[in-house]
Amino acid sequence: MSEVAGQDENRGAPGEDAAAPGPVAGPEVHVLDPADAAILDLEDAWQHGRLSGDKATVIHDRLEISSPRYHQRLNGLLDDPDAAGYAPALVNRLRRVREGSRQARSARRLG
Fold it and tell me: What is the DSSP letter of 21?
């Protein structure tokens, strides 16, 4: 094999070991938009009884969005893998509730 300027033709840069492993895969990192995290945090606190009062008022006061918009975004987060990584228990519980509601509606339609 020939060496060219300190570089072996089967290797990368000088001093770089061609057999060195690439990046090691660690635990999956879930990056969630802070606004989406706030929605999940509020819903989790609400479901665990850490918040009281009218839910629409709490949503508006804490997140400055309307209740319908909150629920639209929350429903969308149930299909987001980053949301599931951020709050797995909450997201899985809400997915089960959503699926149960869909099944109930379907059963009512079919009679």
Answer: -
Record the tokens describing residue 30, joined without a space: 């879930």
3-state secondary structure of 78: coil
Give the residue ranges of the chain where pLDDT is below 70.
1-30
Model confidence, pTM: 0.69
Tokens, residue 22 = 């690439």
Say if residues 47 and 90 touch (Cβ distance below 8 Å). Answer: yes
The CA-CA-CA angle for residues 29, 35, 38, to 5°, reads: 85
- Residue among 103, 78, 102, 82 nearest 91 (CA): 78
- Give the C-alpha separation, 77 to 66, whole Å: 16
Tokens of 66: 């309307």
Q: For residues 77 and 83, give the distance between their C-alpha atoms in angstroms, rounded to a whole number.
A: 6
Q: What is the pLDDT of residue 106?
A: 83
Rounded (10°) CA dihedral 35, 39, 40, 43: 170
Q: What is the pLDDT of residue 8?
A: 47
